[in-house]
Amino acid sequence: MFDPLIHLPHAPKDWKGYEPATPLTDFLMARIGVSGQPITTAEYMRHALTHPLHGYYTSSSQRQNKTDFVTAPELSSVFGHSLCVWFMTVWQQEPLGKPSDIQFVELGPGRGTLMADLLELAHSSLLLDFGQSIRTVHLIESSLELRLEQQQTLKKVLERETDSFVNTIRIEWHDDFSSFQSKRDKSIPTMVVMQEFIDALPVHQFQKTDDGWRERMIDVASADATKEEVTPAVELLMSSNYDQYDQFPEGTVVEICPDAIFLAQDVARVLEESQGAALIIDYGEEGTTDTLRAFSRHKQVPLTSRPGQVDVTADVDFFALKNCLSTGNAGQEKNINTEDIKDSSKTTFKGIEATSIHAFGPIQQGEFLMRMGAADLTMKTIEKPETTDDQAQAFTDALKYLVMPEHMGGKFKVLALARKRDGLFGPPGIE
């Protein structure tokens, strides 16, 4: 980070044009100053997003003014309805075969809109059997204020009891996924959804220099805020995959998100123990490059601009998520060829112990939603007597934004974690 008061030899009298420090700026500078060492991009990202007092997602004042992004569930209820169709189909088919009890888990539920839309369709007359099988909804959320907002959002849906449906669903909150793992009912199948969650998990960045691989660090000593150093993470990176990384040309940047890898493996273990399926929906590609960036009001800003007051994100490496669950390579490592390097830097990881859980996809979000009937769901919503002309146009515009390749439809990908059907086929829509 760059502090003009420290780093300019002659501070100007007029500070117009300089960004004021944020509370998190002061914290990070003290943190770096006391330790005498720079911090990793992962540590910076973790503080910027989830610092207990000053994080982008945890600060109440910041949340009230947040206009930096729009998520798919906020665009249209059809998004949540489409996911409901997928989970209902998984519930119907083998190997589950319509169990009488299931539980849902959502990581990063935001305002609760996605789960509310999913439950709304599940409780309709069309999917009533599926809706009646939902016993518990677990929300992974550490913010008390967001929990209250989620509670209000879900309350509106769950209070709509009819002659054919009486709500018996319990809503439970957990600070993290490990808390859910320890408290869950292992006797019933689990359905997991992660929508725009993994892109906010901290990433380490590594760059190949003329002196070898170095980890990018955040310091207060230069205006560009980043420098490269040899760290224990570099040594760990190279220890098991040296031949692979030795192929990359100088200047290559690799991003690794250990939290995402561990989370995917934990979810796979839950699905292995209790059956079920998971959907991961996020922006990213099968591989990794230099994608760590910050956004404010829909515009990209410097990474270290106004820490705690801008969104920091990185593309999801779907190749890494798939590879860490690779049952065929569990306990082994797989090299890549030079053709992979030309497109994107693909990194490999050791798989977990062999399980029956496989990763399917990713496919584009637009393709997935259309296969789940998003167009028909939109038409049914438009044809309701209470839908106005303006609302009908809004639903149409939202569908286009969700499914068109030049918008969310192409930028976002869908990855499923599930067992194979009949030992051969993948889950619905992502075969």
UniProtKB/TrEMBL annotation:
Q: Where in the cell is it found?
A: Mitochondrion
Gene Ontology BP terms: methylation; mitochondrial respiratory chain complex I assembly
GO CC annotations, alphabetized: mitochondrion
**Entry keyword annotation includes Methyltransferase:** yes
Q: What is its EC number?
A: 2.1.1.320
Which chemical reaction does it catalyze? L-arginyl-[protein] + 2 S-adenosyl-L-methionine = N(omega),N(omega)'-dimethyl-L-arginyl-[protein] + 2 S-adenosyl-L-homocysteine + 2 H(+)
InterPro entries membership: NDUFAF7, NDUFAF7_sf, SAM-dependent_MTases_sf
Q: Which GO terms describe its molecular function?
A: protein-arginine omega-N symmetric methyltransferase activity
Question: What biological function has been recorded for the protein in this entry?
Answer: Arginine methyltransferase involved in the assembly or stability of mitochondrial NADH:ubiquinone oxidoreductase complex (complex I).
**Protein's name in the database:** Protein arginine methyltransferase NDUFAF7
In its UniProt entry, the species of origin is given as Fragilariopsis cylindrus CCMP1102
